[in-house]
Amino acid sequence: MMTRDCHTPLPDKSETSPTIGDIFRKYGPQFRGTHRLHPRQHKVMYDIEHCRCGEFGTHWEICDTCGHMTKGYNACRNRHCPGCNNTARRRWVAARISELLPVSYHHSVFTLPHVFNPICRYNRRVMYDLLFEKSSESLLDFGRNPKRVGATIGFYGILHTWGGKLWPHPHVHYIVTAGGIDNQGQWKAPKHHGTFLFPVKALSNVFRAKFLEGIKRLHDKGQLVFPDELSALADPDTFRQWLYHEVPREWVVFSKPPFAGPEEVVKYIGRYTHRCAISNNRIIAEQDGHVEFWYKNTQQDARWETTTLPVMDFIDRFIYHVLPKHFHRIRYYGFLANGKARTHIENIRRNLAVEHT
Asked: In the 8-state DSSP scheme, what is residue 280?
């Protein structure tokens, strides 16, 4: 096993190391023959296998100076393709840069306990929507609390469903403004300035209570599916007993100190947006039916380490993270909610400019 410090960049990808597309093209037929896939998963595999191979058409690049022409193959533009996210990411980052305010920004992460992973497997849209809904409600409630900010804060969240080794690990990264707008539209700074915006322990407890209340309501309405080994949980009493005995009392809400400035926010969001389960540059080799790749070991100071998976397990874990059709994995809340953000940002900038004159 190789290791690297967490701050050390990974080595440049070798020309001989495979991509996700290479692995899918080589082992895709065998995988489809032994695994049942959702149509969405079939499409993702097909798109990645044929990305930049001519299936999606061609284009010509012409030099403005000499007129030399180079033929290129079009990309699949599937959001799960590790080679097709750069353009969308740059556009999104540019839009967020235009919205930056001269205030502090915080990073919070809401993680769903692993005990819910089997339910998420069969209820992706419902469970991920609930994760967004209850974590955002928790932040908004704390922001509106007169003891904290007493105003509507602004933030956006980015859903990731994977851990370093591609296992299920649903969590939402939030970028949160340190402050918000009151009922009169005036900017209000937090009551207490510190290394975190809200007390993590209290935020975790509120999030846990809200999520459990929400999942019970979904169960009562018959909106959760429990096939195969989960069938016993379809019974309401059994489900509530399972929640009481199996769901941990301590939930993880992670909070980082505020960013050093707007520039740091830009660097951060550029790393975390439009990711898929694994990037091509993390794949080291495929040999003898096994894939070797880099991952960050969060138990060892987030050091880069290598691990190996059988190729069928590697593909299965990658395909697990295909999102439902039209699912929004980036969402906006508070005064940054869609349809309101531009007006609110302009008003806040005017208010802050007046305060500093």
From this structure: G
DSSP for 114-143, please give it.
GGGHHHHHH-HHHHHHHHHHHHHHHHHHHH
Cβ burial of 17 (10 Å; 0-12, 13-18, 19+) is middle
Question: Count of residues for the chain?
Answer: 357
Coil, helix or strand for 157? Answer: strand
Model's pTM, two decimal places? 0.93
Contact present, 291 and 23 (Cβ < 8 Å): yes
Closest CA to 21 of 78, 105, 100: 78
Q: 31, 315 in Cβ contact below 8 A?
A: yes
Contact between 347 and 185 under an 8 Å Cβ cutoff? The reply is: yes
How far does Cα 333 stand from its chain's mean position? 16
Closest CA to 200 of 152, 254, 248, 146: 254
Task: Tell me what the mean pLDDT of segment 78-107 comes to.
Answer: 90
Structure token pair of residue 65: 């100076």
Mind listing the pLDDT tens digit for each residue in 103-123? 999 999 999 999 999 999 999
Query: How far, in Å, CA of 196 to CA of 198, rounded?
Result: 6
Strand partners, 61: 70
Q: Which long-range contacts (CB under 8 A, 24 or more apart) does 228-237 make?
A: 229/118, 230/118, 230/119, 230/122, 233/119
Q: What is the pLDDT of residue 193?
A: 66
Contact between 251 and 113 under an 8 Å Cβ cutoff? The reply is: yes
Work out the angle at residue 86's Cα, subtended by the Cα atoms of residues 32 and 73, and round it to the nearest 5 degrees: 65
Helix, coil or strand: residue 67: coil
H helix or E strand, kind and range, residue 88: helix 86-97
Other Cβ atoms within 10 Å of 75 Cβ, number = 19
pLDDT score, position 125: 97
Confidence of residue 187 (pLDDT cuts 50, 70, 90): very high
Q: Which are the contacts of 267, defined by CB distance < 8 A and separation ≥ 6?
A: none
